[in-house]
Amino acid sequence: MKTQYSRRNVLTRLGGAIAGLLTLSTARAVKAAVQKVFVSSGAPKDYDTTKHKWLMCIDVNRCIGCGLCVEACKKENSVPEGPYFRTWIERYIIPKPEPGSGQTRGETLVDSPNGGMHGFPPSPVPKDQIEHSFFVPKLCNLCEHSPCVQVCPVGATFDAPDGAVLIDPKYCIGCGFCIQACPYGCRFLSPVTHTAEKCTLCYHRITRGLKPACAEICPTQARIFGDLKNAGPDDPIRKFYENNRVSVLKPHLGTEPRVLYAGLDKEVR
Predict the structure, then answer these.
(1) Is the pTM of the predicted complex or chain greater than 0.70?
(2) What total of structural domains would you count in the chain?
(3) pLDDT per position as a tens digit, 133-173
(4) Which of left, alpha, beta for 193 (phi over 0: left; psi -120 to 50: alpha)?
(5) Helices (H), 106-188
(6) What CATH number is attached to the domain comprising 142?
(7) Dist. CA 167–CA 164, nearest whole Å
């Protein structure tokens, strides 16, 4: 979930951390080194980033809001306890319009108690007054044009050739620029390491031929994970494209996310 920072606090922390230490050329050198060796990615040494292009697809119509994906992510990636999530689920409840209002639907209610980790309580809106309700899993959007990468002053956040957007904690200075820049609220500052964290698609798993924990545990296959460069004609990723009207979050921002959704309502933001 998004952590709040004021511009003054961020500038103060950034200045204290890098004043007199980092120049623009140094930052570029650091970024180049990180991209070359993937210092803390957890990928095996023989993994070739150029031979893969990872993609996550989510079928909103299949998500039941059980929260197992959130719990699995927390455990798999040692996400700190409390309001910190690499992935979470939001519930959208759209009431029926007030009689005589002339509207087609009421005001949308959105909640995500504890990130949806243990499921959701009963709806605050009586069932007979609900026009439509659904659950939306969220995570890092794997942007093709990542705002977080653009603002990182030391190259700790970087785009991998295989489509993942990663953070190297050995270089992260905890300035919070990337947290402010992410339009999807997908980053947080770890209270343990004091560095930025977010979803990595379980990079230590996918580079070894496994699925991300969230996709592995989903009981309804609402999360479909795959490799575009190695997708055969019957691959679930191709079927997702063929059988659904695919959309992304906040397309007007031009970030070109690689997390694709089916069944998104216009109220989702």
Answers:
(1) yes
(2) 1
(3) 999 999 999 999 999 999 999 999 999 999 999 999 999 99
(4) alpha
(5) 147-151, 177-181
(6) 3.30.70.20
(7) 10
